[in-house]
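Follow-up to my earlier ticket, as requested here are the two runs.
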Amino acid sequence: MKAIYLPCLIIVLLFQACTPGSDINSPNEPNIRPLMAYEREMVFANTRFAIDLFQQLAKSEETNQFFSPYSIHQALAMTMNGNEGEVLDEFIQLLRFEGLSKEEANKAAKELTEFLLKVDQRVKLSIANAIWYREGYQVKVPFVETSQQYYQAEVAPLDMLNPQSVNTINRWIENQTNGLIKDMLDVIPPNAVMYLVNAIYYKADWKYRFDPSKTKKEPFFTSPGQSVQVDMMHLDEAAGFRGYWTADFSYLEIPYSTGQYNMGILMGQGHNLDQITENLTFENLKLWREQATEFNAKLKMPKFKLRHKMDNMRGDLIEMGLERVFYYHPDNFTLLFSNPTDDLKISRVIHDAIIEVDEKGSEAAAATVVEVVEVVSFPPSGPQTIVIDKPFVFFIQEKHSGAILFMGKLGDPGLL
């Protein structure tokens, strides 16, 4: 399947939430309460981060993408707590926490997650965090307490030199995503000292079900003159939706469950995804949500399944402003370990996400892994031996002035 319009779906998944184990006897009305000021700031931070990350990832010009900004935001927020000073400042800017102190951000993360897990008993959502650290290392008590209190994270040692330990992390991710995300982590490098992991699982039925017998192959136009055949679902009876239109694009909300959650769709009048992406800003999304009006309509939309894995988000996060922590430096993770360590850095931020949309509803899962490693240093056990056994450049210079008197290179002594 080719270009499916997913931008607003990605953002709306940030707010789609529930409790696991919901059933038909669950309450019809959502469990809504007023959000505290710091919780609203957290929502704004999540949304700004989601849109900024989407715009950054769009630069890759991949036709299809899918990710969970909530999962990535949670994993990096946990990681933030191991830092202070200028490194912490970069995390705060990246995560759009400028309006919050670190303590307020952690508290808001906890309470917003709790709100999402309780707000709709008919929608399934699980959000879980875990931290594994190198066996024999001592994690500072405040970091452990913060991770457990605000992120409900499991914190445990792991024998990272055992090749089988990778299965411990992968099994946890698989269990937390209802089996959708498997074998996410390929290998644990010998210098790994910590893994900070978030997993999220979501499942919800449409408010208005599509009849599977009416799904049929129809064209999906990737450009004015090109199309592909897709399984197109049909809602032949008019149902209630919310939408916002301009001369250039349309914004549609397709409700799930009780109608508290929805799939947002943003489409242009043409087929250019770049033009659609340009319209997706925090300010515009806020406007569309506020100005959307209710209307009745029939609906046709593609049935699809999409998986997208990013093996390392390092480059994208650096471009977004999180730079220092990806290079070895003594200022990194100063609040992480109480035992002495060599310089630390984040080596990889791995993200894997999957979504399936069918006649009944949507099922989605994602996981984010932050890998922290220690600089590899092997102290010599005796006198070092230096071997010059490959082509080299040489010169004769005067020490005090630095003047170079002679210069040359030796590429093949056999030709002398």
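Run two:
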Amino acid sequence: MEAELKPLLEVAESLANLRAPFFFAGGWAIDLHLGRVTRAHHDIDTSVMRRDHLLLHKALKQFSLKKIIPHPDGLPNRGTIIEWPRGDRLELPVHQINAYRADESEPA
């Protein structure tokens, strides 16, 4: 299982200088709770407290950060992905960002 956790360790290393708590969420959180990998994962969901979200720009400066504007009709996975400028507070309903490595078009 140790090799399977390598992506989680990479995320934790990237967030090491966040200076705020972060949490694994989604499918990986379930697998960590179960103590085994139950399926292939295509992304890693993490959460931070809303009060700490502006710290992500500094902690993830090697990544391109984009915010997801939810679809106005609430359709899942139909939001608009746009750049998230430094200092731009995320106000509801916006609550999600994606972090992209410089050489990727998919979230890290």
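The only thing I checked on run two: The longest strand covers residues 63-69. Let me know what else you need.
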